[in-house]
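Input chain follows. Return C-alpha cells only.
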Amino acid sequence: MNIQWYPGHMTKAKRMMEEDIKLVDLVIELLDARVPMSSRNPDIDELGKNKARLILLNKSDLADEARTNAWDKFFQEKGYFVVKLNARSGAGVKTVQNTILLACKEKIERDRKRGILNRPVRAMVVGIPNVGKSTFINTLAGKACAKTGNKPGVTKGKQWIRLNKNVELLDTPGILWPKFDDQTVGIKLALIGSIKDEILNISELSLKLIEYLKADYKGILADRYQVNEDAGLVEILTEIAANRNCKAKGDELDLDKASKLILDEFREGKLGKITLEKPE
C-alpha cells in the first residue's frame, strides 16, 4: 500500500508559514500521542530553528500512558518543552499557558531589560491534519474561534487569536510533507485518520492494524472480538466480520464493513489505550 496525500493548499500553507515564522517567538507543535514520531512534520524543525519550542502530546487519553511518559522524556531530553493533553476534554490545557511563558522566559527578560513591557508572546501553532489544533486553540481560548472538524484539512487559512495580554496564537492549516520516505509513517498517519479515508484501501489498512495489535497488544483482539489471535491476519478479519455480523447482500461476510468497524473502534479508543510506536 503506497500512501501519498498532498493537496495543493498545503504547498501554499507551507509558504505562508515560512513567511510568518519571523513574526513569532515560539513554535507550538501538536503531535498525536499514539504516533508521536510519525505525526511530526520533518519540515517543522527547519522552520522553527532558533525559536523556542513546545511539543503538545495531544489525544493522550487514547494513548498508552507508559509510552506517552517515555515520549515525554524523549522530547525533553532533546530540549523541547512538553505537555501531555487531551484538547477535547481540556485535560492538561491549563498548564499550557504557564509553559508558554516558561519557554519564552529569556525573550520576556530581554524585552524587560530593553524597557519593552507588556508585549505578548507570539506563538505559531503547527501540526499535521486532524491532530486537534483547532480544538486545542478553542479550549485554550475558552471560545470557538477556530473551525474544528474530525476530518483532515478543515483549517485552510491563517488567523491570529489573542488569548490575553500575555499570549497571542497564530493558527495555521495542517500540513503534511510531499513524500513519505518511509511508508510505515504513511500507514500510521492513515490509521489515526490524518489522511482521508476516501483515498485509502481500508481493508489493507485494517490488516496493518491487526498486525500491530497482534505484535504489541496481545489479547486486545481476542477480548474485544472473540477471535483466535494465532490465526492469520485475513482469518482474524473474517472472524471479526462473522462475530460482529458484518454482512453484505446475500448473507455474505462483508470484510470492508469489518475493516471500517475495527478502524473506527481503534480511533475512538474502544480497543483500549494504544500507541503504535516507541522512542528509539
